[in-house]
Specification:
The protein has one helix and eight strands. By secondary structure, the chain is α+β, with helices and mostly antiparallel strands.
Amino acid sequence: LQPSEQDLAEFQTQDKILSDSYNRLQARYNHKQDFLANHRDPNTRTVTLSGTGPNLSEDRQVRVFWNEEEQLAFIDASQLPEPPEGKVYQLWRLSSLQPLTPHDAGLLDSFSESDDKIFGTQVSGPTAAFAITLEPEGGSENPTLEQLYVLGQV
């Protein structure tokens, strides 16, 4: 029996679906392995960011697992609420608190699709504190301080 063109097309579609699913699972596995390696590294510091202002209660916290030597940070944002549509959380590295000197340290993209709410990003340069703000989709050049959710000193 020869498969029909329709059968072949169905097999190709199923193959693509399985391949995409495998690739997503592999990416999630790699992300978790990277997080564990970073978390277990003795050079990794845990920085706790606490809720601030009217946006978040003080009992909610975000943890940044930051390895300055590797210039890598993982952010556990599981206690942040889902951002509204058209908005994204943005991480800021503050190189100084006096005066406040923020630098973009990445977006917490695909928040709703993340099952563990752990996000990895590259962080380089002197860091006195981390902060997370709610910004328009795509992020901002400067933080919207009225939308400051959490802040924590290193």
